[in-house]
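Practice problem: predict the structure.
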Amino acid sequence: MAALFKSYLKSMSISDLILILLCLFASSYLWTRQEQKDAYLVVYKDDQIFGEYLLSEDIQLVIDEHNSIEIKDGKARISYSDCPDKRCVKQGFNNNMPIICLPNRLVLEFRRKDGDHRLILQ
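Answer:
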């Protein structure tokens, strides 16, 4: 098997390698752009939906006097919280795992339009 792979690599030209790399780059770029376009953030405050925001838009939101969030480059984070340990702020930007501030009862949940499934069960 290794000998077959080596002979295949020797028969490839530089143009073949460039074409393969170009195809891989283009497909990964298109896949990530589609993923960002369909993604949005659902903000829950006190077990109620506070709002839904597209991750493709860069915005800063003040939820209340205790929390504010920031959406930038397809990711979101809790930029300010007055909770004691600030674990939610230390988590930083994310675009797939929920961000939770337990003392202030704030949840940031990431969803895609194609699969509308909640990550947190109540």
